[in-house]
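User: Structure tokens for both sequences below?

Assistant:
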Amino acid sequence: MQLFESIANEGAATAMRITRLVVWQVPLTSYVPYHMADKKTCDTVTSILLRVDTSEGISGWGEVCPIPHYLPAYAEGVRPALEYLAPVIIGADPIGPEALMSRVDSWLQGHAYAKSALDLALWDITGKVAKLPLYALLGGRQMARIPLYHSITCIAPDEMAVIAREAQADGMTQFQVKLGADINWEADVARLRLVREAVGMGPLVYGDWNCAASRLDATRVGKAVAAYDIMLEQPCATLEECAAVRAATGLPMKIDENAHDTASLLRAYDLGCMDAVALKLSKSGGLSAVRRLRDLCLHLGPQMCIEDTWGSDVTTGAILHLAASTPSSRIMNTCDLSGYVTPRLDTHAPNRNSGHIAPPEAPGIGVNPDAERLGQPAAIIS
């Protein structure tokens, strides 16, 4: 018994501990201004990069990049949340992220977006210690390459058709058509019709209002494009309204903003409006939370888009690992967020190739941002 106690005490004394958090604020600029409904625009958006340092010299990277006016999240809230959580985080064991994240949730309710960056960094450390890429810890690799969708900014309908043709020439077969920027339902019909005509029948085309359409306008658009094989994405602000639009139009529905936890997924399922669903890291609190939602969706049946709101290479790397560890029959697509913005924080990070992308093979997330591209830290929390 004394021998076992000695070994246990020695292990406790030498266990890895978190020593500090280093936070950067990095402006990410879209290659083209990215317009969505309700006057939401991504042009230059602040991304928060987090490095979690440990007593053993192993560090983990996290990232979160909230889009302004999109969800209850804002970049400037991440650092204060991490400072508030410091008594729980500093000195804690980073291995096995869910244990620490459970204590984090007890200390600070809500603020899933801020917790997402921390959760990613903990998974990165855990993968590095295990000397395995994250997909091996999230269920094992089930896909060699993951299909991408190309998101088309909401501009004039004929210009959107040109973007769709160019993306298709690069191998893309799935197209998200942003709608509602001019609050003109007939223009939205033209957007969907022209993009469909540009890419032909077969590729997946879906129109996304980001919650900003009225039930009436979404129904009118849906009925007008019913012959074009279109899917609708989150037209209205509530699941009940989205379900009503699906019932009125007969078109399949993807839920995004309203899908963020177990209860919301079960509600969407009960309403019959969740043919597809967007699972986003920062909506739910990171890989730990989204993995649970992914596994629930394997039971409920919707096609999944595993992604995040916005970001660069760290975020993209993390979502690719979760997507790659999901059965291919249940993945609709993912998104190379880093492919839409500059600067790239790790020039060796994954890139799209013929409409697909693969996760990094290095241990952990497998992305290591260039310190020169990050600039000076905004905060060091220890």
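Moving on to the next sequence.
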Amino acid sequence: MPAVTDRTLVVGEALVDLTRDSGGHESAHPGGSPLNVAVGLARLGLPTVLAAQVGDDEYGELLRDHVDASDVDLRSLPPHHGDSAVAVAQLDDHGVATYHFELTWDPSEMPGPAGFALLHVGSIGAALRPGADAVERLVEEAVAAGVPVSYDPNVRPAITPDLSDVRERVDRIVPRAAFVKLSDADAAELRPDLDPAAYAARIAGEGPRLVALTRGGDGATLYSGGESVEVAPPPITVADTIGAGDSFMAALLAGILVRGWTERPAFDEEALTWLGELAVHASAVTCSRPGADPPHLKELPELLA
């Protein structure tokens, strides 16, 4: 694998998933979509900085230990909060999670994007006020500095119930982003009047060079420059789906970075297929074990090809 020395900046929430299964058992796992993406990138050998708000409580220690173990450079954003963010993930009998959140997202400072190979934003961090406003300003700063932006809206109605505000933010960020990933559930929330595939194809024509639409166990479709490719996931036994989309995102970005494609204007069928298969493999690995536990490089040998 070619050495990638330029760092990726990931900005957004870091939280602890308190997972409760259908039998009432509870366990704590580090999580938050941006944190998961940062860990996923670092485990795949990409130098990664995570800018987030982390408390100094027991959960904060768990989060710091987790990102340290994967060599993620954690930048704690002011102001300081003693309590770390928490998401309660309730699993049904099929391992599918629904969430309840307890968090504050109000960073007063952001690291500058200049000098980074890529800026990734999304999820709660790009939707929850007041921090979402700071994230939008950071995206604008990145675009002005020539730093490509990656975006995953990862819509969470439980914490951002004003979907009109979320839609407006998505509509502002998408044209500025080079790479966008969203799930079919995200698409249904954002544009219930459109088929998810139609919505993904539409936003692919609004500025992004690559759009990926994930459909859970049905795989994903990637769009670029009028081209689209469908990829199917490998067969697995699902432990749960926590962090699956984040592992997809991390592997997709890792593939783009490793191949030196951050400035590529469009992706042909061969490139889309390689990226899509890499990403669904990463997602499947995560689904095969409990919690948001993205794969290491040795588990994605195709990234070395």
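User: Anything stand out in the second?

Assistant: Residues 163 and 304 are 40 Å apart (CA to CA).
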